[in-house]
Every structure is written in structure tokens, then in C-alpha cells.
Amino acid sequence: MKALTANRLSDGEVVFWKAGEWVERFADAELFGDEDTALEAEGQAKNQPTVVVDAYLIDLVEGEGIWAPVSYRERIRALGPTNHPQHGKQAEGGAAIAALQQASGAARSTGRVNLIKRK
Description:
alpha+beta
């Protein structure tokens, strides 16, 4: 499965594709079961008047009855920019956010970590 994501230009908020529009919550995102449909949606998103920064597809894994991004970085993006309950998706996510936080499966980090030696 795949989902389509980007960052909204007006405020930098992470958004997800659903039926031709961008939504703020990962729980509301449209999930694509085949590559052709996912690529078609990505093409539609990129042909819209520019409201987001570089839309791209992310891989999902099912775990404990919910779908979650495979990449650790994308799980963090799906959860929202902060863990303050009054901010963005955190305030609206409720049980969906709690489930995503608890999801197990193939989450992995795809980035490098630079260690800084302390003197």
C-alpha cells in the first residue's frame, strides 16, 4: 500500500492526498493498493496549482489493524510536527494517533545519524 504526502506551502504543515484534495491527518489519507493508481494520483497532485512542496508517495505497512508508514521519518511526519495536544493533527487525531504511535512492524530509519563528540 502507498499514500501520497507533501508539505503545504502556506504553513509547512504535512498533508496527505484524499480524492483530489489535501487533508491534514494521516488517518484520513487515501490508500493506494496498486502502483498505477498511486502514480496517477501523484501526477494529478503535481499538476494542481502549486499549494504544496513536491508531492511524493510513501510505502505503508499494516500492523495491529492499522496502516502506518514503513519509514521511521514518515511515521514522525504523519504524527505531526509536535506532541503538543493543541497543535495541528495531534489535537484531531485521538485514537488514530495513539494507534499510529503504537504500530509495530517494519518501521525503519532511512536517514543517517551524525554523531557529535562532546569534549
